[in-house]
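Please check this.
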Amino acid sequence: MMKRTIFTALALAFSACMVLAQNEKYTQAMTASIQALHVLDKAKPDAKALLDIANQFERIAAAEPKEWLPKYYAGYSNVILGFVGTSLEEKDKYLEKAAALLKDAETIAGKPNDEISVMQAFQSQIHLAADPQNRWEADGAKFAEHLASAKKINAENPRIYYLEASSVFFTPEEFGGGKKPAKPLLEKATQKFAAFKPETNIHPDWGKAETEWMLAQTNQ
């Protein structure tokens, strides 16, 4: 009986050590890829480097099929690729892939997730920007729908207000946009960012620098 108890305890300890090692490896891989992604965000993104990062996230997703964050960040990377693409066909290729990856992330998460809804709104926003004349109605509705979903789940998420503000900021004044109407939204986003703390070091924590930049423009 004593030997069986000792064996069971050792087996449990070994299993816990294995899980911890796997979690550390996953966290390290995610941290490195997220840092690389954020470095590119701060400059004019290099499409090849960005594609490499997107592929890194997909490899992590394949190794960790129960984690939604790798699919989320792979989707995020493809949204940015859709923004920097050189043709409408290229942009749409990446944006369609982003939509599929985010749908996968949603399935893995297993419950409503504000960060995924925010990223789906971002995907709709960039898809609209690729061909605004033909997409403003459909993508505008999707953008608003995804943000409303995110707000219903977690109204304290600052990226909701960042995206709302950016949509207004970059809309021409003749259509009700511009710096002045965007300013209250930017101020609200700034307040939300000040109070926000990501769940872990690898959970979404982007948009603050962009919010600060736009708010600075409204004061000029």
Notes: The longest helix spans residues 2-41. Residues 6-21 have pLDDT under 50 and may be disordered. Residues 115 and 150 are 7 Å apart (CA to CA). The two ends are 78 Å apart (CA to CA).
